[in-house]
Specification:
Largest sheet: none
Oligomer: single chain
Number of strands: 0
Radius of gyration: 16 Å
Strand content: under 5%
Mean pLDDT: 87
Structural class: mainly alpha
Helix content: 40-55%
Length: about 60
């Protein structure tokens, strides 16, 4: 995924997001990628971390710091 994103140029990143219903939140491909890469993954890591603690398992050994 990282290799594919590195190949994107500014014109590709600044292209209008393809789903009209999300244009207010994600006006460009750049906006959507930023959300997915910077926030969405962390959200799910947090969910897994909470689930692990609830099951009495150790915390996830990786930090986003």
């Amino acid at each position: 995924m990282t290799a594919a994103i590195k190949k994107l140029d500014d014109a590709s990143l600044d292209y209008a997001f393809s789903e009209p219903s999300f244009l207010e939140v994600f006006p460009t491909v750049r906006h959507s990628l930023t959300q997915v890469l910077a926030r969405h993954a962390r959200f799910h890591v947090g969910q897994v971390s909470v689930w692990r603690r609830a099951m009495g398992l150790s915390a996830i050994g990786r930090s986003f710091r």
